[in-house]
Amino acid sequence: MPEIYIEEWPPHAPNDLARQETVVQVARIMANAAITAPSQGGVQMAECHIVYGAAELDRVAKKMEELAKLKPDNNRWKRMFKYEAAMVRDSDAILFIGALAALQPFDTGCGYCCGSEGCQFVYKSRGAELGVIDTTETLHPDWLVDGPLCSMNAYGMGWAVGSAMVMANRLFVDAKPFMSVGVAGQKLGYCPKSPLVVGIPVAGKGKSPYVDILPDYHLHNLSRVVDSLRSKYVISRMVNWLPYRLWDPLNPDDGEEKKKGG
Question: What is the rounded CA–CA span in Å between residue 186 and residue 197?
Fold first, then answer.
């Protein structure tokens, strides 16, 4: 009879892959919630990208560790990117949500972008012609966020992220939105049409990877426990080697037991 067995140990075994597939399906539903979230003007405000698999998650984590080196003297900056890279490796999938409309002004002159000329500040800064901004042109390739952006349309992504998080809560998976994950994903080409991206790692494990964070979490996290245990176990085996067929101190032969009893 067809059956599906789900258990997270050992990692990447068939029973764990079945669990991961379930989380990816949840991420799809979260993406649907993000895209159908309320938006200004009734236009699509968000695009989504889902990444899963050990190799892809590790690729995102390595990019985050690379970004940590941008400010070598800022411990808070390095800690944020390194710790959250470890959380990515412990996740099952990442949902990237991009602010699809953030490059196009909402044309209300609200001033939320802090431009002194209203919406003209964004149009002029991005070299618009006839009111159309070329979204393929990058003004500041070295910036984490290539501004200026329309803040009104960027705010709309808050609805998208919030809707995705509500769905994660209703479907009983752990998820947490991160700026660091979003920046790394954008640098890797995810959500290619958006100037602003938020990354939401998603996990369906017995222990959430996003809470109870220890100091030096990039060195002391759940994924490192097994490697640490194996190294200690191998050393103990090497030190206390014994010919188990001839002698075992914890399980002595019958004759030895009688000697102890006598």
Answer: 6
pLDDT tens over the chain, length 262 residues: 689 999 988 888 999 999 999 999 999 999 999 999 988 777 788 999 999 999 999 999 999 999 999 999 999 999 999 999 999 999 999 999 999 888 888 777 777 777 766 687 787 777 777 677 777 777 777 778 877 888 888 888 899 999 999 999 999 999 999 999 999 999 999 999 999 999 999 999 999 999 988 888 888 887 777 777 777 666 666 655 667 677 777 777 776 654 554 4
List the domain boundaries for the chain. Answer: 14-214
**Structural contact between residues 213 and 79, judged by C-beta atoms closer than 8 angstroms:** no
Q: How far apart are CA 252 and CA 199, in angstroms?
A: 58
Query: Fold for domain 14-214?
Result: NADH Oxidase (3.40.109)
101 contact partners, CB below 8 Å, separation of at least 6: 39, 43, 44, 45, 150, 153, 156
